[in-house]
Amino acid sequence: MRLWSTGTSLALLLLGTSTIISVEAVDHSKFRTCAQGSFCRRYRNWVELMKNPDYGYYKWEVVKGAHGDREEHSKKTGSFVLSNTGEKHGTLQLKLTFYKSGGVGFKLTELNPLYPRYEIPAGDVIVAGSNEEMPSEQVQYNEDEGGATEGNPQDGAGAKASIWKWQSKNGDHIEAKLEWSPLVLTVGINGQTYATVNRRNFLNFEIYRSQTVVNKNVFPEHEHADKLIFDSANHRHVDEEGLWAENFHAHRDPKPRGPAALGVDITFNGNVQHVFGLPEHADDLSLKDHGNEPYRLFNLDVFEYELNSPMALYGAVPMMWGYEQSRNTVAGVLWNNPSETFVKIDGHNENQGNTWFGGGKKESMKGFDTWWVSESGIMDVYFFPGPTASAVSNQFHILTGMPAMAPVFSLGKHQCRWNYKSQDDLLEVHDKFESYDIPYDVIWLDIEHTDGKRYFTWDHHHFQDPKMMTDKLTAQGRKLVTIVDPHIKKTDDYSVYTQLRDAKVLTEKRSWAFSEKEIVVKKEGAEEIPQFIKDASVTGPPADYNPQEDGAWEHPLVANPAWQPPRKERTIDYANSEVSTFEGWCWPGQSVYPDFTNPKMRSLWSSNFALSQFPGSTLDTYTWNDMNEPSVFNGPEISAPRDAVHMGDVEHRDVHNLYGMYVHRATFEGHVAHKEGRRPFVLSRSFYTGSHRWGAIWTGDNLAAWSHLTISVPMVLSHALGGISFIGADVGGFFKNPDPELMVRWYQFGAVAYPFFRNHAHIETARREPYLLQKANLLLVKQAIRLRYQILPYYYTLFHQYHTEGTAIIRPLWHDFGSDSKVFLPENLNYELMVGDALLTRVVDKPNQVEWKVYLPGGGDDISGSSAPMWYCWYTFEPLKGGASYAFDVRGNVPLVVKGGSMVPTKFRQRRSAALQKRDPFTLNFFVDPQSGTASGKIYVDDYDSMETPSSLMEARIDVHRKKDEQDTSLLLATLSGKVVKSHRIAELEGVLGATGSGNQGLLVERIVVCGMGSERVHALRQVEVQYAGGEGKVEPLEFRVDLADVVIIKLPKVRVDKDWTIRLTSEETEGWMERVI
Asked: Most Cβ neighbours (<10 Å): which of 225, 625, 630, 787?
């Protein structure tokens, strides 16, 4: 089927100049692999050892009676002490947490560590407090004696398990089961298990130890001494390289605290064929086995990153989703550890076989296997039961915090490059956008606007009056963003540097010193073993021995084979470890790096966003944080050394992935403090779990290549699955020069699919502002940008839902249509996405295309049990049945379809920016589901800018009347209604947005469009009339027309989005309709 769209033909793009792009590969030598990092290599080798049934003597188990008189209470509240094979005392503390949302927390750390194990401060990532935890009296606890279980197929008689059951706030029945020996946790919902921890016995926890030679012969008298294992750093087969120090090129990591890695296997139970998430990687949406190279999570400044790779990029959210295709349920796992992390995808396993503890009972349950390992810290894991994708998102955001509401301008078009050279250059760009009538909201300045890369300053030779420049933008509804990077130029004439230096809040380095002591090796309670013993072969002095001449005879000694030399154990001597400020090289040259883990540092950073501290800035100056992985040009892997020191003597290795998030947060808090009640807007390149609370993210320095347009689809979707829906890719690509067709296609897709919609370019690329395109291509780009502004009310409403419920703005097809197995096919999974639950689009990622096939989901029941939907072409209103592919004419735009049953709010008056749209009236577009005869959707309005704002959330719907039988002579064809479902200080909205007759009609609906009522009903339509809430029964007729596509268009319905109303469509003119408002 061919669907012809409106607009200028893309064939005209051939008038442009085509450029052959040479894609340069990343320099792999600059970045470590699993094999080059000792902890990952050690764990990976140890996992292979654990797969050997002969090593079933290694296991972790619960220590009974460890809590004394409080043992029963501790078990009921999920607190346990664990010991390993051969240990006489417990070394680990396990705490399970049960949440009202249905989630389960699994936290494992050392009991009495030699050094403190780093744990992220409460509230920084995990914001859910005790109020979100289940009261212990509402959790049913019991113990299970013996027998194999679904989660643990071992057949050891007398094995015990703790079982907790409770009902989530949504009414789901949640269960957690902890097998005591060997330790296995299984979690379930509504009678079905969804995840298991340590199913394959890969749990490993390298405890802190004093620095010494590894004792491979741990218990020589043990029956299985050659196979006994304590952890991956202490057994006879250990790889000792890199335990206490390691090198990467010219950089040496002294590893002063020694090995501290931790890892475990996690299985998604059931018919799980795909797992998703783990941003940020330039790879397919469905995570895959890359052989010996696991997915790496270690925030890095990667130049010209490669595609289809597990390499680390700029950010990390260790969140994974599994889709169970037999039950159409979804579950999630969050691994909350900010040190370097690797995640191995082993894949779906139909039968686990003899992988349990040395050949225990066979496991018949299906599952998708993964393992996770981090360099240091604690094991802090959270499980989200779903069972729907929206439920998992909500459970994740309840735990990690809801996103801040975005100001509306930030959802518009952003114009950026490195760099606009001067104030005149920037204003010329602005003026040309005006003269060419191209909407945009924000223009950006990169690092060259500063005084010698001193952030919070201006180069006054080129930006003589930045306040005047910004005021001009403000007068025409635009904003300015300036870059503020976290590397600070080390020079005494820079106040930001001296402020932070004097406050002693900079990242530091230590010259590590150690203290040593000798430890004599002996069995507990035994006498000390001598180094030498009498030679047993000698029974007495020689025959010619003369005591008078030779003195008293001494029995000759020989080396004692049982003696072991004393071990010299080294521990850190903090008192004698000299401290200095860490310095590295970045854009300003010699730089220092603020310690953003320190709340005092973040407060000082925030103070610099005061207008008095940042002269030339205004309330319409917003911020971009780049290079915040952190990027250190002369550091290992272009980043900070792992033994750099943060507040509390915490090593950088422990917090590395948090650094960028803390920068983002400090800047956001600076906006909150100094924007006089306006909402912040901050963009960050680096991120971690929780970054969604502080603003937008982009996918980093991509390439002007068709392949990078393609990969942006799974990349932005994986970010959304990590809670980061305010995401986008650089339109047009950052490196190199896009050919005109690529530029147009990227604009067309990004305008619909990227919540954060910005084009950006490298300083060495040609200028690429839209008005520089040839006329035909410019027209196509303008159409794409205008489409973005038309659907902005829909985007804004989606953002409000994201802000209040955590629901993803952009979603993979399986999020809503997982029952259709075709949505998991790579040709659909990696190229199509949903914007909210109504709009579907597909990237056109090849040149010279006239037609483009799009798969529309259907073909079975979705999670909620409804049938395959009807879809409608956005441009032509043509109905399309789900479960099939259709060829769309894409000469003028990208495919865009609407799911039947949806209402999409829009604004069609062309404005120069979103700020200038806010008093424009709405068009409500209804696309009827022919099976249910309904369509509905929400529309959210507020003042679009303030943190504390009046607001209204309305649900608008249509109900098409269905005749009961042939004798049904009802005149009512359909009823449209609008009902305010939530409001805050709603009376104030009228003054903010205007009302009827005011000339400012930001609360009015100027048009209602109804598609899909059915030709018979549409042609029987004779009258449309409206009744207002509180209108004392007043009914007014409305103008309407029906177009050639059987679409009903109601003109000037005189209804508002902040007051209830009802509109009735009838087949005859009637009088005196007094029906109550629905």
From this structure: 630
